Amino acid sequence: MPTIIHPSAIVEPGAVIGHGCNIGPYCQIGSNVILAAGNVLRANVVIGGHTTLSDHNDLHPFACLGTKRGVGVN
User: Fold this and answer.
1) 29 exposure class (CB count in 10 Å sphere: 0-12, 13-18, 19+)
2) Distance between CA atoms of residues 13 and 68, nearest Å
3) Section 21-44 average pLDDT
4) Where are the domains of the chain?
5) Best label site of 5, 24, 40, 74, fewest CB within 10 Å?
6) Residue 73 has what pLDDT?
7) Residues 43 and 61: beta-carbon distance below 8 Å
8) Cα distance between residue 4 and residue 38, in whole Å
9) Which tens digit of pLDDT belongs to each residue from 37-60?
């Protein structure tokens, strides 16, 4: 399965997106984030900071990982 990034998603330069990931609408991925293969980020997921996810996670809408106070991708 190829990697799919929705056109409304924001993936900052420097982020590493593994094979077969599916990044949904309005997701935000910070520059220091590493997503291994097969991760699914549903709508409005925010991942920031120095965050690494292993293979095959499924993050549901409005999940927020690696951020201060749950805001932004820094």
Assistant:
1) buried
2) 20
3) 97
4) 4-65
5) 74
6) 54
7) yes
8) 10
9) 999 999 999 999 999 999 999 999
pLDDT of residue 70: 53
CB count within 10 Å of CB 48 equals 22
Q: Which of 4, 2, 29, 5 is nearest to 16 (CA)?
A: 29
What is the pLDDT, as a whole number, of residue 68? 76
17 touches 41 (CB < 8 A): no
Task: Find out whether 47 and 24 touch, Cβ atoms under 8 Å.
Answer: no
- In degrees to the nearest 10, what's the CA dihedral of 52, 17, 22, 68? 40
Radius of gyration of the chain (CA): 11
Is this model's pTM higher than 0.85 or not? yes
